[in-house]
Amino acid sequence: MEIFGIPLQAFLGQLMLGLVNGSFYAMLSLGLAVIFGLLGIVNFAHGALYMIGAYVAWYGLETFGLNYWAALVVAPLLVGALGVLIERTLLKQLYKIDPIYGLLLTFGLALIAEGVFRDQFGVSGQSYSVPEALQGATNLGFMILPNYRAWVIVASLAICFGTWFVIERTRLGSYLRAGTENPALVQAFGVNVPMMVMLTYAAGAGLAALAGVLAAPVIQITPLMGSNLIIVVFAVVVIGGMGSILGSILTGLMLGIVEGLTKVFYPEASNIVVFVIMAIVLMIRPAGLFGKEK
Predict the structure, then answer these.
(1) pLDDT for 74-106, tens place per residue?
(2) CATH number of 2-126+138-284, picked from 1.10.4100, 1.10.3470, 1.20.144, 1.10.620
């Protein structure tokens, strides 16, 4: 059976690859949207935090025998702690001035992190094996589905929508949103707003690291893996609407699928299709698909 002259199995395989990429886009753009929506910081260091998360998993396995399941916990905690350090020592100085300074600072931090890791590990990629429990594939009849890719999709969706639920549907989330809109009022009710802001940035950094661990068995781990992805992820956030958490999740998944299908029907355009969509969306709706018009 064929679809538009392409064998069904090849078509579905590319669709699955697009969904996996979309899962990574969704997780990374979710972290960016959380940080921008709640703190107003355009966090260009997000790609570097994603890269560091993958390296924590690889280095932990090679040096300490840290298995994949432990890395899913340890990497977000370590990178989240790094996020606390960044927020307390650098970013908190920038909240009351033009957001461009936050962008420039985090871009500089990303370049520093990339340079340090290139110096320590070189530019050649490191391999991280798929955990034994997720090796192999499942025959669905119409296609062979690798177990690890299925796990990435399920885990990413659970994390993304779980984060959205916490921020949009719980008391903690209401405190977070209120603390960014009127911190003095929230502080008057006994809420430690600086602590809440710090933990929000740490949570965004932890989400980036978690995405890095999930990506480690799928791609080569290199110091450039974050910078290669972050521009696309920023485009996803812009299309979804800056600060819109649900918009970032849905747009990330959608654009991953669109990019995957473009590789099937018109491979030459696969590297630019996201940016073409971004340009079209901004012309029609400058606030993004799910953003709020001012």
Answers:
(1) 999 999 999 999 999 998 888 777 888 888 999
(2) 1.10.3470
